[in-house]
Amino acid sequence: MRFVLMALACDGEAAALDSYEQELVRAGVLLAAEPLEPAGTGARIRFDGEDRILSRIPSGAQPADDAVTAIWTLHTAGEDEALEWARRLPLTRGTVEVRRVAGDASR
Questions:
Q1: Is the pTM of this model over 0.90?
Q2: What's residue 106's pLDDT?
Q3: Among residues 88, 71, 72, 73, which one has the least CA distance to residue 1?
Q4: N or C terminus: fewer CB in 10 A for the chain?
Q5: What is d(CA 57, CA 44) in angstroms, rounded to the nearest whole number?
Q6: DSSP state of 94
Q7: DSSP per residue over 19-69, as a string?
Q8: What pLDDT was estimated at residue 73?
Q9: What digits encode the pLDDT tens for the residues 37-83?
């Protein structure tokens, strides 16, 4: 089963995250890993009926509690294993959201 781990507003050290990703590789569960640029480099599009409203996120803006800062896609035997990998993230602050990939053929 495929799961995505999304780190929300975390401050993990790069070396610790590199080590964590190497563990995922050695375990054979890592499909993809992507750090994201700070929220201030992005944009949002709000949908309101037929309207599409673009807004730039101000540079230097403090990350919101729900700002995704990194993502990992894993292939695990099930949710319990995905949750265990999420618990092992070397973060000192933040949240990790774990979601199963919709339409995963290995259901």
A1: no
A2: 62
A3: 73
A4: C
A5: 7
A6: -
A7: HHHHHHHHHT-EEEEEE---GGG-EEEEEETTEEEEEEPPTTPPPPTT-EE
A8: 97
A9: 877 778 889 999 999 999 887 766 655 666 788 899 999 999 999 99
Query: CB within 8 A of 82, min separation 6: which ones?
Result: 1, 3, 5, 74, 76, 98, 100
User: Class of the 2-100 domain?
Assistant: alpha beta
Domain boundaries, the chain: 2-100
Pick the closest to residue 58 from 69, 43, 77, 74 (CA basis). 43
Are the beta carbons of 27 and 51 closer than 8 angstroms? no
Q: What angle do CA 82, 89, 43 make, to 5 degrees?
A: 90
Tokens at 81, concatenated: 């294993």
Mean pLDDT of 7-33: 87
Q: Residue 53 class from Cβ within 10 Å (0-12 exposed, 13-18 middle, 19+ buried)? A: exposed
